[in-house]
Amino acid sequence: MIVNSILDTIGQTPLLHIPVRGGEVSLYLKLEMFNPSGSMKDRMGLSMVDNRPISEDNVGIVESSSGNTASALAMISAVRRIKFTALMDSHASLEKILTVRAFGSNIRVVGSGDGALATDVRDREAMRISIEEGSYWTEQHNNPANPAGYVGLVTELLDDLGPTISHFVCAIGTGGSLCGSARQLRMHIPRLQVIGVEPVGSVIFGGQSGDYLQSGTGTPEGADVGMAIDYDVIDSGRKVSDEMAFSTCHYLAQRHGLLVGGSAGGAIFEALNVARQAPTGSRIVTLACDSGTKYLDTIFNQDWLATHEIKIVDLEEYFRELLVDETIAENLQRRGKTSTVSSNTTSRKYLQ
Ligand SMILES: Cc1ncc(COP(=O)(O)O)c(C=O)c1O
Question: For helices 41-50 and 68-80, what crossing angle results, to 10°?
Fold first, then answer.
């Protein structure tokens, strides 16, 4: 494919099918790390830049971000020749900070450096800079162009699967990807079950606040839950621990050769929980928000895991009935045969 701009490569990401319960239920992972800056945020970044008010056309852009929105806006700003300033946490992954710098954007690092999320401080700084410098704050938490940026993703899902999707399971931070996609999907699939996934310690769905290490997803105590979150479109809100989210990342890397970040790990862990109960024939879609290559030094680094006292759990053991026979199911599928296995039978039988 010949393209005239790197921005033309945003979207049209692959969909990875993982059969679970011996093929009774299908899990589909939308591989958003295939976007050019490595996350789904390229979609909403382009939407926020293209839909900014005409009065803001000739000014710089400022945004507060855990790293992926900043990387997307930095890439887009490089192509469009816009001055971009990113407000990022002092503990943001080095890979994300270096990416923003590589695209020629400015970074202001905020926060105490003790690892606590500084979302509220970042947002206040973004507002201050936009007023002082006369730049445009894209304000992803309250910008309708954020959820609207996922229209293309929904078209791709419907092109690939039609209106057969039973569940949509997605990490939630600003809520743009979950709510923007779910609202569009519901227009075609009224009975779609929509499940939002946040880290344990995040307060989007209430509950006890606390620290968490899954990046980009969730909202810590004190930060704004913005307008991009539409609770009306969400059927269920779930919480996943760092331990299970990161264990899922390790499972996907070692069993499927797929490197995903922690928020995707959390969402996919919860999608597997959904798959455990879902009626036969269910088709569950989850977004793999970004690539695990952004977290080689953290989620995939044994020293870092030990420092944070995170134990990686064997997911095939944890989801025994769900995952253990995947290889057999896949082999059968490859040979054009179907499996008759039921998830709760101890002695599993397959068609020869
Ligand atoms: C890796 C990652 N996962 C999940 C999210 C949450 O996505 P959204 O803001 O669309 O809710 C983000 C947002 O920054 C992210 O960077």
Answer: 50
Identity of the residue numbered 214: Q
CA separation for the pair 77, 88 (Å, rounded): 17
3-state DSSP call for residue 71? helix
Query: In DSSP terms, which residues pair with 137 in a beta bridge?
Result: 62
Residue 215 CB less than 6 A away from ligand 1: yes
Token pair, residue 219, equals 């909202």
Q: What is the pLDDT of residues 128-183, one digit of tens each?
A: 999 999 999 999 999 999 999 999 999 999 999 999 999 999 999 999 999 999 99
Question: What pLDDT sits at residue 350?
Answer: 24
* CATH class given for the domain over 41-142: alpha beta
Task: Tell the residue nearest (CA) to atom 1 of ligand 1.
Answer: 216
DSSP letter assigned to residue 169? E
* Domain extent listing, the chain: 6-35+146-328, 41-142
At 174-184, the pLDDT tens digits run 999 999 999 99
| Reported pTM | 0.91
Cα 216 to ligand 1 centroid, rounded to whole Å:
5
Write the class of the CATH domain 6-35+146-328. alpha beta
Q: What is the DSSP letter of 258?
A: -
Q: What is the residue-wise DSSP string for 121-132?
A: HHHHHHHHHHHH
Residue 221 CB-density burial (10 A; 0-12 exposed, 13-18 middle, 19+ buried): middle
Q: Is 29 in the pocket of ligand 1 (CB under 6 A)?
A: no
Strand partners, 20: 25
Let me know if the fold of 6-35+146-328 is the same as that of 41-142.
yes
Percent of the chain's residues with pLDDT above 90? 80
